[in-house]
Amino acid sequence: MRRTSTMPPDPMTSGPMTPPCAAVVLAAGAGTRMGSDLPKPLHLIGGRAMVLRVLDALAAVDAAPVVVVVGHGAAQVREAVGAEAPQADRLMFATQPAQLGTGDAARVGLSALDRHSDASDVLVLPGDTPLLRATTLRHVVAERRRAGAAASLLTAHVSDPTGYGRIVRDAAGLTVVEQRDATPSVAQINEINAGVYCFDAAKLRQVLPQLRLANAASEYYLPDAIGLLARSGESITAVALDDASEAMGVNDADQLAACEAALAARTSR
Question: N or C: which end of the chain has fewer CB within 10 A?
Answer without folding.
Answer: C
